[in-house]
Amino acid sequence: MKTILAAYSGVKKGSGSSILSAFHDLPSVPWLTRSKVVKHLQVISVLQFVITFLAMGIGCSLLLMYMFCTDCWVIAAIYTAWLIYDWNTPKQGGRRSTWVRNWTVWKYFRDYFPIRLIKTHNLLPSRNYIFGYHPHGIFCFGAFCNFGTEATGFSKIFPGIKPSLATLAGNFRLPVLRDYLMSGGICPVNHNSIDYLLSSNGTGNAVVIVIGGAAESLDCTPGMNSVTLKNRKGFVKLALKQGADLVPVYSFGENEVYKQLIFDDDSWWRTIQKRLQKILGFAPCLFHGCGLFFPESWGLVPYCKPITTVVGEPITVPKIEEPSQDIIDMYHAMYIRSLKSLFDNYKTRFGLNESDTLQIQ
């Protein structure tokens, strides 16, 4: 009892002790140890991201419609009017919040796996960039943590560069979710949004595009080193039109955090997945991680596997308003070579074998 009062008194008097340090001073209560509290906070931070991605947009849409049928319809009407007025903001640079990007919850999110960001070359603030992120994984944990937050210190590692992670444009049609995404500097992955960031927003911009998209997520599973890139050339054309340098980015471990049931290409399950992907814009993957309370069980919590995101050497791209297909193909081939070189140079440092190769599909 005296230990508890002493710990409480230290926190109350502002002696510099944190709540976690107070828990650390309670050895007689096993479930209140510092390490366990930190681990629980890490799990909660990751799980809230997963639930937000899966349910926030739909949940807020249903709530808004329900409010129109209650005495709160005025609030719903005001928000809907604001939504209409603010409709084009995501395509015009969004509404980035430094405060949201620096939330403490993202540090717990980072440390759960953990996630690291590695720089191989300096980036000039006088240039604009298109980062090609690989692989997609199930939820793009590495992309979000590194470029949608400041948890890994992007602005310190790349001073003068402002990242904007591009995601499905449909997410920005959903109430509340759109504002939440914009606060992290996340933008729609469409021509209008990317053109604005690279042509009307000055220099020092880095648009991060997950090149493989939803199609690539269908092939994400532990031990898989494959990216969907062979026929993805739209990002190269965008780079040429804007004169933005291309930067390959590879996240080692992104495919390791979930296990997925992968169907054969000629199976009817695969056909259903691909059709739903075209309709919904995202792939309905059948995956699992570990359980919230029992790690041996199946659940939505990802496995604790390190994710290391390596930002490669920029490829200088000239500005050509109407690039020919030959020019696009040439820079696309250069990008593939650069990505493969990045993978080969770092694969053994992050758990892969020298014999492992990157498959381009």
The gist of it:
With 361 residues, this protein is an alpha/beta fold. The chain is built from 14 helices and twelve strands. The chain has helices at 2-12, 19-24, 34-67, 73-85, 98-101, 104-112, 141-147, 154-157, 177-183, 191-199, 213-217, 234-242, 268-280, 325-346; strands spanning 115-119, 129-134, 162-167, 186-188, 205-210, 226-227, 245-252, 259-260, 287-290, 298-299, 307-311, 359-360.
Task: Compute the separation of the termini in Å.
Answer: 63 Å
**Helix fraction by DSSP (H/I, runs of at least 4):** 40-55%
Element-level helix/strand string = HHHHHHEEHHEHEHEHEHEEHEEEHE
Q: Characterize the largest beta sheet: strand count, sense, and whether it forms a barrel.
A: 7 strands, mixed
- The parts where pLDDT drops under 50 for at least 5 residues are 1-17
Secondary-structure content class: alpha/beta
Which whole number gives the mean pLDDT? 90
Widest sheet: strand ordering:
1-11-7-2-5-3-4
Organism: Sinocyclocheilus anshuiensis
Protein name: Acyltransferase
GO biological process, one term: glycerol metabolic process
Pfam family, one: DAGAT
What does the model show?
It comes from Sinocyclocheilus anshuiensis. With 361 residues, this protein is α/β, with parallel strands linked by helices. It has one domain (35-349). 42% of the residues lie in helices and 14% in strands. The strands form 3 sheets. Strands 1-11-7-2-5-3-4 form a 7-stranded mixed beta sheet, with helices on both faces. A 3-stranded antiparallel beta sheet has the order 8-9-10, with no helix packed on it. The longest helix has 34 residues, at 34-67. It is globular, with a radius of gyration of 22 Å. The chain starts with a helix and ends with a strand. Residues 1-17 have low confidence and may be disordered.
